Every structure is written in C-alpha cells, then in structure tokens.
C-alpha cells in the first residue's frame, strides 16, 4: 500500500541542489518500478488526464514535457492559466529528476521538481515532489496561510496518480519470433505486403487498402470472422533504423470492441547478416480479453510464424522461439 514518507513543513529553507527557496515537499511510494514510472510521470499530459481541475494542455514549444527547453500551457480551472518549461533532467539507474519552471497569470512563479528513487528490495519507487520559489522573487503575500493547502494538493495529486496506475489494467502481449535464413530485403518486402502475409498464414480475409502502396497513415479494412464485423486498421509507423539494424511496421486497430482482435500489431525484422534475419510478431490485446481466447491465439500465432519461416526455408519447429 502506498504511503506518505515525507512531508516537509520547514518552508523557508534553501534547496541545495537548485539554490531556491523551498516552499514545501511531499512524497509517496509507488508500486511500479522506476523505469515504467518515469515514462508516465514525466509526461504532464498524463497528469491532465487524471486531475479534474486541470484541462487543455497545449504544447507551445516541442511536442512533449520532458525535453529541456520544451514549453506547454494548461488551464487550472477557477484559478489561473499556467505555463511550464522543462529546464533540467537527471537520469540514471537509481534516480531520475525532472524540473519545470511554472508561471501563472496571477503572478505565481515557482519551480516544481519531480524526484524518482529506486527502492531496490521490492522494485517499488519513492516519488517526491519539491516546490520552490526562485530566490530572486519576493515571497507571495499571504502565501504562508495557503501553503498547507498547496502541500496537501500536491500529495493528493500523487495519491490520484498512484491509484490510477494501480487500477490500470495491462495489455496482454503475444510475442513470437524465429530466425529466417534468407535475404533481409526479401523478408522486409514480405512484411510490407499485408495481403501476402495473410495468404501465407492461410487467413481468409477480404482485404482492402485505401492506398495502392502501404505507408504511414494508410488504412486497411478486412472482415473479421471472430467478431462478424469489418475491422479497420491504420499504419502507425514504418521504420528502418540502419544503425540498430531493426526495421518494423506497426498497426493499430480502429475499434471500440477489442476483445477478439488485436489493438496493436508489430511486424519486425532484426538484421543478423545479409542472409539471416530475426522475424518477430507482436500482438497486443485488451486486458479484458478472455484467457481461453488468448491461449488459442498464442497457438495460432505459433503456427503462423512457422508458416512464414517455411515460406522462405524449410526448418524444424525447434528453431522457433517465443517470449
């Protein structure tokens, strides 16, 4: 169970790391590991989704809230319009820190720093919020009386985030891979041809494209026997990373009912050498999919990747690997 570890009430002391006047700090232990938590908490857009009095986040510089120099704006309903700028980041295995400068139309100026500390014994994470005032700023009038309110507010934000993450159901991932002894360009051309992949896998789908050649943003339509409905998919990404020798195509399903169809698909090749590649298939399903369906789908994908391998070469099933 998450609990408050540290609520600092010595308001008018210096923060030695940033040399600002410490207004208050609070902390909470989260159940998630530091790496997963960092990806979620550094993104202020996730905070907007959870906190009901914050709305309309807009990026004014950059496209995220965790790159130094990036700026965003958000409306604090009933109080003020806030502007934030990411000004500092520290990341290592056991500690991660991100600092934003905040400014409101009503004269509020402050620094808000998020600290994450790895708890090595049980993979949990200590999360700490520190709010400081720029040293060259005069202290806001009558702020002493409102400090307890904002302190409790920050702690409530941590609690709401922890509750949200604890209640968040994870996607179900099905991953299969195999080694194919063939030219990597031929395998790449194969995974870009969705119709051919379905034909080799013996999927009887009437597939339609909205573009003559699949590209990022293209839509695919097919009839799903499992749901007795047409399914629409959109290509999210087609990437070829030469240095990492990893090439992939990623799809998302455009649907509200995802219990019997994958919500996300990735076909990926990792180039071992000119005549040998690793082909991997990743399918993500909604957490409310039935266990029986998931088990059957795992067996289906195992058979599918064997067919893909045999399409290029005849090999034993023992060569197929899965996670």
Explained architecture:
The protein folds into two domains: 4-167, Alpha-D-Glucose-1,6-Bisphosphate, Chain A, domain 4 (2-Layer Sandwich), CATH 3.30.530.20; 172-322, Alpha-D-Glucose-1,6-Bisphosphate, Chain A, domain 4 (2-Layer Sandwich), CATH 3.30.530. The chain starts with a strand and ends with a strand. It is built from six helices and 17 strands. By secondary structure, it is an alpha+beta fold. Mean pLDDT is 84; it is low at 1-18 and 315-320. It has helices at 34-41, 44-50, 143-167, 184-191, 194-200, 291-312; strands at residues 4-8, 13-15, 20-30, 54-61, 71-76, 80-91, 95-104, 109-119, 124-133, 172-180, 208-209, 219-224, 229-241, 246-254, 264-273, 276-285, 321-322. Helix content is 24%, strand content 42%. Strands 1, 2, 3, 4, 5, 6, 7, 8 and 9 form a nine-stranded antiparallel beta sheet that branches.
List keywords for this structure.
Alpha-D-Glucose-1,6-Bisphosphate, Chain A, domain 4; eight-stranded antiparallel β-sheet; 323 residues
